Amino acid sequence: MTGRATQEGRSAPAGLHALMDRYLDGDARAFAALHAALAPRLTAFLVHLVRDTAAAEDLVQATWLKAHLARARFHVQGASPDGAVQAWYFTIARNLAVDHLRAGVRDRRRRDLGDDGGERDRLAEIPSDLPTAEDLEIGEAEAQEITSRVRDALAQLPAGQREIVELHKFQGLSMAEIAARLRIREGAVRVRAHRAYKALARWLTPTLRALLLLLARGGGA
């Protein structure tokens, strides 16, 4: 888990491994400090790979979720414990970026919009000397438990808000497409979506909120 993924974020901040140890022991404050140290680096790394700031921000959240679910598999490799922690997160981010770009290529092909060379070039830029997504696979039981908690939170939303979240996140429709399907103004869709996501932000931890993205990408929808 060394190499270009780590280099993209420069040398690892000091103290990451100590924070990781505390986080693995259940220290929420250590997780917050770990997040503060690595989130900006992950965001810059993913923006560079996918060339889309909004998508990169979603992928950062998905990275934290994936890492949290797979945290029992973390172990130090190489001479730098701090570097191993940074490489762990960058590896997961890289794999999610690959999945995201491949999905974009497939969409382009399905819609027959012409040449997909740009997407292929972006995939070629991503370092390949890292573990695959399968190497970081999470436990099915744990994933199902967390998915159930997210579904329970969605069930608490008013029907109109829940429908918009499901169409937006799970079916990938734009706000304009949702408005057309529901035969309401796009502004009304955005208001409902804002209220729904604000409610979910109150009910769910950042890790569980990130699962909405993975569910939308087929990770348990």
TrEMBL record:
<protein>
    <submittedName>
        <fullName>Sigma-70 family RNA polymerase sigma factor</fullName>
    </submittedName>
</protein>
<dbReference type="InterPro" id="IPR007627">
    <property type="entry name" value="RNA_pol_sigma70_r2"/>
</dbReference>
<keyword id="KW-0238">DNA-binding</keyword>
<dbReference type="InterPro" id="IPR013325">
    <property type="entry name" value="RNA_pol_sigma_r2"/>
</dbReference>
<comment type="similarity">
    <text>Belongs to the sigma-70 factor family. ECF subfamily.</text>
</comment>
<feature type="domain" description="RNA polymerase sigma factor 70 region 4 type 2">
    <location>
        <begin position="149"/>
        <end position="200"/>
    </location>
</feature>
<dbReference type="Pfam" id="PF04542">
    <property type="entry name" value="Sigma70_r2"/>
</dbReference>
<dbReference type="InterPro" id="IPR036388">
    <property type="entry name" value="WH-like_DNA-bd_sf"/>
</dbReference>
<keyword id="KW-0805">Transcription regulation</keyword>
<dbReference type="Pfam" id="PF08281">
    <property type="entry name" value="Sigma70_r4_2"/>
</dbReference>
<dbReference type="InterPro" id="IPR014284">
    <property type="entry name" value="RNA_pol_sigma-70_dom"/>
</dbReference>
<keyword id="KW-0804">Transcription</keyword>
<feature type="domain" description="RNA polymerase sigma-70 region 2">
    <location>
        <begin position="36"/>
        <end position="103"/>
    </location>
</feature>
<dbReference type="InterPro" id="IPR013249">
    <property type="entry name" value="RNA_pol_sigma70_r4_t2"/>
</dbReference>
<dbReference type="InterPro" id="IPR039425">
    <property type="entry name" value="RNA_pol_sigma-70-like"/>
</dbReference>
<keyword id="KW-0731">Sigma factor</keyword>
<dbReference type="InterPro" id="IPR013324">
    <property type="entry name" value="RNA_pol_sigma_r3/r4-like"/>
</dbReference>
